[in-house]
Amino acid sequence: MKEKIIQLNRQSNGILFPALLLPIWILLYLNLQNFANFLIDNLAGMTQGQHLTETLRFFLFEVPKVLLLLVLIIFGVGILRSYFTTERTRNVLEGKSLFTGNVLAALLGIVTPFCSCSAIPLFLGFVEAGVPLGVTFSFLISAPMINEVAIVLLLGMFGWRVMLIYIVTGLFIAIISGWIIGWLKLEKYVADWVFQVKTSHENGENGTVRFSQRIQNGFDSVKEIVGKIWIYIVIGIAVGAGAHGYVPEDFLSSLLGKDSWYGVPIAILIGVPMYSNAAGIIPIVSVLIEKGVSLGTALAFMMSVIALSLPEIIILKKVLKWQLIAVFVGVVTFGIICVGYIFNSII
Which tens digit of pLDDT belongs to each residue from 24-50? Predict the structure, then answer.
């Protein structure tokens, strides 16, 4: 009886601790912009609107934001992973074609409003759980590209037609790109440590696991994965902050003139070094279109920023070998180019 009471106390303490941390996380996350503004405007006394000022403001806001999101997402994925071993996941997917898995993963990405950096922990969770590699890429592409923020902003700024076009084309790119990557069977180009993490989690799944242990799995996942990729996040956002602060919109609109045959590939080349989410990039796309950039070129630029950014590629280098990254970039780039030219020709 005494041992049961001790076990119940340990379990309740294990649940209570993250419950107490959640309000602190929310408070920090909601005040990140105010904190960045205080450091830049009040403490440092920098002039608003200058390139260096806005570059530093972007960096000081985005780094803690992405890290906080990573901690929360990895913690949740770590708990969920404790319920699903590779065998269980494969049983769930049994009887479904690979293409069906790509469709389901892409649709799942729509309801997960994460930026590309935040989607990577979920991508790792899929791979570690035994979900096919191509299916994980369908999710990785869809999650940042199509979400409720993008849908609402596109509807408000451009109307239902553009919104629907973007959803359909984004899903098409995510599904087909993931299917091609899965068909090529490139699992050997995933970093070895990813599968080692999977093995260690599987070995800990013996019989019934207390929920307090599942919570501990979440904390262990945060320590293990964030510890491996945080430096890549900082480097990636630093690159994006420089592009955010020093690349002028007028330059983009003049270079991407309407009906320019080279506009789509140039838009992708300019968009890749940037880092932003849908809320940050869609207003810029609206300005570009008002200044004469064609819709297809603007959408290609938006897709490249959200789904194919250099910061994301830098982070992916920690979990993927360069051969697989090259295939991923090539397939997605080809899909975005096709979408850009198609829209420029019909709209």
Answer: 888 988 898 899 999 998 888 888 878
SS3 readout for 77-93:
HHHHHCCCCHHHHHHHH
- Whole-angstrom Cα distance, residue 178 to residue 119? 15
pLDDT band at 129 (very low <50, low <70, confident <90, very high): low
Sign of CA dihedral 198, 204, 205, 210: negative
Whole-number Å distance between alpha carbons of 74 and 229: 12
Return the DSSP state at 186: -
Give the Cα separation of 93 and 87 in Å (integer).
10
How is residue 146 annotated by DSSP?
Answer: S
Contact, 148 vs 113, CB < 8 A? yes
- Between 79 and 12, name the one with better pLDDT: 79
Q: Which residues have a Cβ under 8 Å from the Cβ of 263 and sit 6 or more positions away?
A: 255, 256, 257, 293, 294, 297, 340, 344
What is the reported pLDDT for 8? 47
Name the token pair of 217. Answer: 């799995």
CB 284 within 8 A of CB 249: yes
pTM for this predicted structure: 0.59
Which residues have a Cβ under 8 Å from the Cβ of 347 and sit 6 or more positions away? 294, 295, 296
How far is Cα 314 from Cα 232, in angstroms, rounded to an integer? 6
Predicted confidence band of residue 52 (pLDDT cuts 50, 70, 90): confident
4-10 contacts at long range (C-beta below 8 A, 24 or more positions apart): 7/210, 10/212
Residue (of 28, 31, 30, 36) closest to 54 by Cα position: 36
Count Cα atoms within 13 angstroms, Cβ side, for 111: 4
Q: What percent of the chain has pLDDT over 90?
A: 3
State residue 204's pLDDT score. 47
CA-wise closest residue to 60 among 92, 35, 87: 35
Q: In angstroms, rounded to a whole number, what is the distance separating the alpha carbons of residues 31 and 33?
A: 6
Q: Is the pLDDT of residue 70 over 50?
A: yes
**Residue 32 tokens, joined:** 């990140």
